[in-house]
Each structure stands twice: as C-alpha cells, then as structure tokens.
Amino acid sequence: MTLVDQIEFFLDANQASVADAFLRALARIIVVLGCRGSGKSGLIRAIILMLAISSRKQILYFSQSNSNSLDQFQKLCDDATLKSYLLSSSDREPYTTKPVPTLRFSNGSEVLFFSLEDNVSKRGFHPHAILVDECQSISESSWSSVVYPMRIRLGDKPAPVLCFGSTPATDGHWFYRLYEDGLKQPNKRGAKSFAFNIENSLSFKGPQGRQALDEARANMSQDAFDCEFRLIPGGRGDSFFRSADIDACVAAYNPADVDLSRGTIMTLDPSLGTSDPTAYTIMDLKGNIFHSHSIPIKTLKDTEQVQEIVDKAKQYKSLVVVESNASAWMTYAGSLKLLVPHGVMEVPLRSIATKGGDAKHALCKQLAWAMENRRIRINPECTELIRQLKNIRDYKTPNGNIQIRAPEKEHDDEGLNAVTCVEALMRGWTPYLGPSINPAEGLL
C-alpha cells in the first residue's frame, strides 16, 4: 500500500474535495477558509506528501511565523511511514534546517518551509506547488510581492497555489477578499474557494463570526465534541454504530474490488478458550473487509488448532495485528510469530488515549467515522461481524467511565476486530511495513 493510498483513505469529504481540486489544478488559486481544528493542518501535510512521493517536485510552504513553519516541518519529520520515502544516501541528509527547514526525498523531491518573519532569500526557486498557511496573519504586501510572484516558472505553467486561513479580523483583508472572489465562478483571479465549517454552521464572516466560532470550540464539552463529529455521546446503552451506516457499508461491498495483490491486514482477538472464541478479521488495503470468523481455540501453542489462522495469513499475505496487552496473547505470542510468514505486529492499543475516552472508545469513534463516510466496505457473508457491530453498545459505569461492549452473555470480538483493522490501515501497517515499525512510535 502506498503512502498516497493511506492518505486518501482517511481524508474526510471536505479535505478530499480540496485535495482533488488542487492536485488536478482546477484553479490557479485554491482558497480554504476554516476554523481552528477543522482539518486544515492535516490536509496540508497530506497534500505535501502526495505531491512529493508521486514524482520529483519542488514544493514551497509559507507561513507568517517561524513557529508555525517549524511545527509543520517537525510533524512531517516525525511521521514514521514517511521515513521510508526520504533520502537515505550518505552524501546528503534527508532533513536540514539551513538555510530553511527542508525535507529531501529519495526521488529528488524537496519541500522547503519558509517563514515570512525571517530574512532568508526567497529567490531562485522554481516550485511545482506553493502552500500558504495562516493567511489571515500575512500582510497584503507579503502576499503580492513575495509569495504570489514565486508561482511563475520559466518555460512551464505557473505553479498552483493553495491558501489556508481562518477568518481575518476585517472583511477588507486580502485573504477574505480572495475567498469571496473564489465563491464566484468564474472570476478574474482564477480562484476557487472552500469552507471548512462545523455542523452548527456558525458564520465565518467578520470578527464576530470568528470570535463566536473560536469561543465555541474552546469551551466545548465532551458531549458537544462528540456531537460535532457525529460521534454518538455515550452513557445510555445505545447502539454505538448506526445500523444505517453498517448497512450502507455492506451494500457498497463488491467482491471484484477486493485487492489481494499487496497483501492484507488480519486483526486477531485471541482467547484462552474458556467461554470466548478466538476471532480473526481480514481487510485488504483498500478498506474491504472480506473475511471474518470465530473459532474455538484453547491455546495457540497447539499448531493444529491454530492452523486455520496460519493458513489464512499465508493465503492472503496477511500482517497479523494483535493487541499485545491481552493476557491470552502473552500466553502464546512466540508460537504464532514463528508460524506467520508475513509478520506479527504487537500493538499496545490500551496506550492510545484521546480527549474524553479510553483506547477502545477512541478507536470505536474512528470506526464510526470510517463507516459513516463509507471508507470501508463489509462482505455481506460476514454475518456474525455485522450482527456484532449492530449490537455493540456504550454503557456508563457507576464511576462515570464509558464502556463499549456487547450486552451481557453476547460476543463482540469480531466487531472489535473491525475497529483494529481501521486503526492498522490508518497507521499504515502493511505486510511490508508493519514488522519494521516500532508500535510505540506509531500510536497517538
């Protein structure tokens, strides 16, 4: 699975529409207006990576402040999956900060991170793309005399420009004027505008709209945070995943779309064989869950009993992803590692912690999002998996914690395997990359 595949899989609808317009150069300038936390920074990094690894390119990133420019640079430097695409020869380093922070890729691509606060010369570059961040803080003179002229490339088409920003303090700011021009098609500037808004559709226009939006997000409760992203607030024993979303993912499944050529991900929920079976679920690297099954295995030390899992892992070239905290896994980890040729990845999923929930809660939110946005498809023959997904509920314990599980005396192992599948795909764990990645570096 290429890095481009991984990135495209997890772009939401807003981000995907902007990426498509920019990468296909549908306008000279793409303008994105959005509030803090609406996905602008993540999209910037995704577009940089997609451009850099596709073919040799020079990409320029501009921000008003040194701190923001260095922050984007550092986040890309820290990306575990990205490292395999960076320059690895000994004569040049893949990272440098002089004269400006720069990433160098093995295919010859370069990404340079400029701050408009510094005095570094910005002449002599011939970029294939320009990304401008925090436009609401950039002066009109810097935009018109420094940034925009750099799009001119001798003997070639001008480089497309992607501008990001939140609402400026005044409606007369150049970025807001550009955004309004881009809403009109066609327009003299050749701009096309997009807005990243939250579901309550607070107005972006003017300082009042900006202040209201920032205050709403700063004071947001956990329930409001969940509701904003259509993730169901817990505590009432409700079904965690929408049946309509599950049914839509089943209806979208097409066996002809399943791609086994690049290997697959198998997630394993091991059991010690008391009352719970050992469940495994297999997904291709395009998001198609095509096989899920539960089998009664007392111990993975018995090679005959574990043969079904091993055979499937070999047949589909599966990287096996398993939660390393599970006591059952600790009992027979070594045995399975010896039997599976494409690698076993132990992941301490319980170490994932996000705002307002434990690891399982955070990962189930991720699966809910993926199903709502149709990023996965489910084979209708996986009837037990589908039943369990519809049956998983959220409960509030007496001490106020949220538990996500099946009702008493019901199973949820296959359903929660789907949760781990999406986490593995999002992190870029594949049969080729998985065993070489330190799981501790790949988690939130």
Low-confidence stretches: 198-206, 220-237, 351-357, 433-444
**What coarse outline follows from CA principal-axis ratios?**
elongated
Major sheet summary line: 8 strands, mixed
Number of helices: 15
Portion of residues in helices? 25-40%
Overall mean confidence score, pLDDT: 75
> CATH fold name of the largest domain, please?
Rossmann fold
Instruction: Specify the structural class.
Output: alpha/beta
Question: Separation of termini?
Answer: 21 Å
Q: Which range does the strand content fall in?
A: 15-25%
The gyration radius over C-alpha positions equals: 24 Å
**Reading side by side through the largest sheet, how are the strands ordered?**
3-4-5-2-6-7-1-8
- Total number of strands: 16
Summarize the structure.
It is built from 15 helices and 16 strands. With 444 residues, the chain is α/β, with parallel strands linked by helices. An eight-stranded mixed sheet has the order 3-4-5-2-6-7-1-8, with helices on both faces. A six-stranded mixed sheet has the order 13-12-9-10-11-14.
How would you characterize this protein structure?
With about 450 residues, the chain is an alpha/beta fold. It is built from 15 helices and 16 strands. The strands form 3 sheets. It has an 8-stranded mixed beta sheet, with helices on both faces. It has a 6-stranded mixed beta sheet with strand order 13-12-9-10-11-14. Strands 15-16 form a two-stranded antiparallel ribbon. It starts with a helix and ends with a helix. The relative contact order is 0.11. The C terminus is likely disordered.
